[in-house]
Amino acid sequence: MFELGFSTALMRWPDAGVTHEVRFFVTLLTAVLTCALLYWRARAHRSRLSRIPVRIHVAGTRGKSATVRLIAAGLRAGGHRVVAKVTGTRPRLILPDGTDRRVGRLGSPAIREQMKLVSYAASVGADAIVVEAMAIQPEYLHALEYFYVRATDLVITNVRPDHHEQLGTAPDAMAKAVAECIAPGQRLFLASAARVPPVVDRASQQDCEVLIIETNDADPHEDNRQLALAVCRQYGVPDEAAEQAMRSAYADTGQFTLATVTVGDRQVDFANAFSCNDVESFRRLWTRYQPSGRGAAFLLNPRVDRPIRTVEFLKHLARLTPSAQLFISSRDLTIRRRAIAQGFAAEMVHLISPRMTVPTVRSLVAHVPEGAILWGVGNYAGAGARFITLLQQDSPC
Hints:
- Helix content is 44%, strand content 17%.
- By secondary structure, it is of the alpha/beta class.
- The chain folds into three domains: 1-6 and 14-37; 48-248, UDP-N-acetylmuramoyl-L-alanine:D-glutamate ligase; 257-392, Protein-Tyrosine Phosphatase, Chain A (Alpha-Beta Complex), CATH 3.90.190.20.
- The strands form two sheets. It has an eight-stranded mixed sheet with strand order 4-3-2-5-1-6-7-8, sandwiched between helices. Strands 9-10-14-11-12-13 form a six-stranded mixed sheet, sandwiched between helices.
- The protein is globular.
């Protein structure tokens, strides 16, 4: 930005009044000042990091936000002054007293905002930060760890296939990306589900202390809790104190829930799996919470920039129960045709307005068969969030 301003000013100077030597000198000076500024910022950031002895980075495909909140709560119970940040469903800064506030952004998410987190944590005298890895591409994950966080402890929740648009379709693409967070000398808390060759090999190369936490990979809440307890235990927090604090911690906005909701004059069991936006994680929730022989309906909230994910969900939902009602929060006829091509009956596929007004929600619920569970899947942001907001209003729709 600094250099661009100088260059723009130079372009506007009259040619007759500026020699090549002057242009060269100003360009050189701009480069020197820019480098000096970047060096000063990097040095200040390193200094702030050094004042925070406990730095915990949480990476993986699913469960990062919930695990960050649980670890922060447990460490607070052990007397630590903790600042944490989640960037999943809704970006939130978790303050030392356990309350949280919205993370303000002027544009798209950027990994450099972690510098603000560290600056704030240092300014309030925090001795611990717990941070969710907020990138997908390997190069950004590498930069997050090696420059922005420099974690003393890395927690990996799981490494399930996802984000094929950015990472490709190789089965181990996600594992290789997450492995970029592993740095020399870390202590690595690894869920048993994440004990895969790319991660284990990288940890060995970097001479990390590896703690394998046995998880059953069937109950995501329990898996996250076990990981958080293992971290807190290493910092001297008794399990009983940590568990009590974790029970009172705020749940993450996108946490999976299954509850009976009232919409107009109808009641329906709604499974909020919007944030569980990879097929493998959804399959595990379905196996655990969908009773055999009970009907189901789906509300799919697709992302325009995740076409591969949308197709994968359509294939999987059709395999589970092609006779189910399928509501798609989109006006894109292509998605409807793809759903039918995967096996859904044409009369069962409905495109609905992504705006999710009260009449839209009422009409949707009215079409859910009696006794069926309505599953929200695909993505939380946008229509998913609006649907949840309407359901959570004090007055039923």
